[in-house]
Amino acid sequence: SKSIKKSLELVKLPEDLDTKGMIHFVGFVKDIDNIRENIPSNATVYSNLFQGTNVMCLFVRKSTPKIQKLLEENNFSPIDAPVVNTIPDTNVCDGPIVIDAGSGYQTYLWNTGEDTQTITADTAGIYTCIVSNAGGCESTIEINVTDCASTENALTLDWNVYPNPTTGMINIQSSENQITYVVFDLVGNKIAEGQSKEINMIDYPSGTFLIELQNSEGLLKTFRIVKK
User: Fold this and answer.
1) pLDDT 10s digits, 68-91
2) Could you give the CA distance from residue 32 to residue 26 in angstroms, rounded to a whole number?
């Protein structure tokens, strides 16, 4: 019998997995069994069940003609993930602001818990919105909202993080004697924190993470890191 990869189980696509470069297919849950039984054991396929429906989106890394034919024969059609709008970073210097994820998506889910196209932000932070299309495929929009103090002072900070992308270790470049880091996923969940100029991300899954640095004076600077 064929060896079936664990990733083919019907589990939600990890929210921190970077699906850029993957091929997306959409179909119905009832047609997944034959795919699971016949797809090559070395294939990397992630699944995402569109909540409240029987529609499923498959994300295939390094697809081959054989895999594509198998999916299409079982009623899974290629589909593009939603193209996300580029929203510039902004600030709340003049009070609360409205953040608009853009129109044209089927669903919205902000890391604040709201499910509307727009939200009102009155505090600094990283705001993310998971958007999906009619096929159930998802992409994430990210906006960094700062306050006046951090916006003005961050420009003078000599901080940096490298390498980016990384396969494991991240180095923090700073002239500060003491610096604190916090690692978040794109949904806003805190993954790790500490006081060091090295961050070990070897055991992290592939995907995109946010690293927030803070010094003893409370100045903040956030970096976006890709873990391969």
Assistant:
1) 788 888 887 776 666 666 677 777
2) 11
